[in-house]
Amino acid sequence: MTDQLTVATADDNAAGAAGPTPWWRDAVIYQIYPRSFADSDGDGIGDLPGIRSRLPYLQELGIDAVWLSPFYASPQADAGYDVSDYRTVDPMFGTLDDARELITDAHALGLRVIVDLVPNHSSDQHEWFRRAIAEGPGSPARDRYHFRPGKGADGAEPPNDWQSLFGGPAWTRTTDPDGTPGDWYLHLFAPEQPDFNWEHPAVADEFRTILRFWLDLGADGFRIDVAHGLCKAEGLPDAGDASELHLLDVAVSPCFDQDGVHEIYRSWRQILDEYPGERIAVAEAWAPTLERLSKYVRPDELHQSFNFSYLGAAWTVEAQRRIIDESLVAMRSVGAPPTWTLSNHDVVRHTTRLMGSVSGDAAGRRPTAADPVAGLRRARAATLLMLALPGSAYLYQGEELGLPEVIDLPPEVRQDPAFHRATGQDGYRDGCRVPLPWSGDAAPYGFGPEGGPSWLPQPDSWAQLSVAAQDGVPESTLEMYRSALLMRRALPALGAPDNLTWLEAPEGLLVFERAAADGSAFRCTVNLTDAPIAVAKPGQALLASGPVDDAAAQVLIPADTTVWWSVA
Ligand code: NOJ
């Protein structure tokens, strides 16, 4: 019987004949959502000192880097993705010294730190936007954003038909200093998030200095928010059919994926390359095709791009194999590593999402109530499949505990701005942002001081999912993640480069092998059906997402189960 085995840590990334692989080509990067990770001061909101205190946990987990969602000064209209000062830490999260010390401590533990950069829009409380409003129509301060007169005789209609991703028009009308209705400004997200005008040289200059500010502080890279949105089509033409924007199914649109963004990223790459230590940038770019996505990671642009097509793929052999192949081909065409993600702070956690139905909720947004046991089983299988793939994997805090989406949050505690704008594409994002359970029998489960608050309520059932409850329990999800991450480092076949060979397999089973330069081979078998599938035992079982009896020459791979094998 094998479930989870532990192997000794070997050298860092496998070194090919051409020398050591840059760390980011096969890194496992763990997303921290600061307000929900660990609360050091008992105000119910997580903070930087809280993260700092938990770094040893992350080191033990076996990740290579953390990505921190925004912790900058912000009115929190969109949980920090509305930045009012890009060089300041919001007091809710700590101070700049806390950020510096967090980076220093992380480095001492061998962990890299990636920070979030929000260049598409600022907060409406950013100094530039306040000046733009105060100085009125025609002022140069307005040129750094998109202000336009409205349509119609009295300008009462928005300048074009663009819709906000959070619902409603992407334009809000201003009031002139004399109290009369004035021009409109563009916001692809909430009205509190006005879009920058990237045609204005001051915007580009400002962001280059912001990059340098965080690089000088020691940041190892950036996650670029809405990386496909910075440039808009000239003249801001109507979007027509594409006006109902949805991130996962973006059609060609005048708001997104305009060719002008690439020049920006080329200039950023030059800055990153000036710094020692392989600093990186990863694009949050919802491009319409993988081919378009690959343009963001050409050799002189960004290093990685999130692969949302993979996140949205159905749990079937055909869909998984197709998206894996397409991703490998697209990224190989530009020499970039593929990336894989199953969960993040914007989508329904994969423990819940994957159990909705065989086809799943492709957009990964709407939570569904279904069998939690089957959901966790499938999520664990999906995780081991993902971690066996070539390239880099992104984990979202709490997935290593098998946390489900919280689907019954009462409306009065919800804070996602899209929830309150009923027609928006999202509005369900609070359910994946509930603070983590660390220990204990009662909320806040070690997230903050005993008896203290948490900004979103944690379910009663989370006592059994806490870190303390799973620590050292061989069959727990936490121990499965630890074993898998340890093996990724130890097994040469699981590092870069990106070779992967599909093998013939019975229906419902996905089987692939990866070979290492030293001749060792690794095989991954994934049962994507609801019934066990028999296979000839291919070698020594290393790790499995559920109990597997591998004593005989024929092995039954249980329903929704992944097994890792070492093959001679
Ligand atoms: C993508 C971020 O992940 C999301 O949380 C945010 O609401 C939007 N960008 C707007 O910044």
Distance from first to last alpha carbon: 20 Å
Question: Number of helix segments?
Answer: 13
Q: What is the gyration radius calculated from CA atoms?
A: 24 Å
Strands in their spatial order, largest beta sheet: 12-11-10-6-3-2-14-13
Bound small molecules, by name, code or SMILES, are: 1-deoxynojirimycin
Helix content: 10-25%
Let me know the average pLDDT: 91
β-strand percent reads: 15-25%
The structure class reads alpha/beta
Notable characteristics:
binds 1-deoxynojirimycin; 8-stranded parallel β-sheet
How would you summarize this macromolecular structure in one to three sentences?
With about 575 residues, the protein is of the alpha/beta class. It has 13 helices and 21 strands. The structure holds 1-deoxynojirimycin.
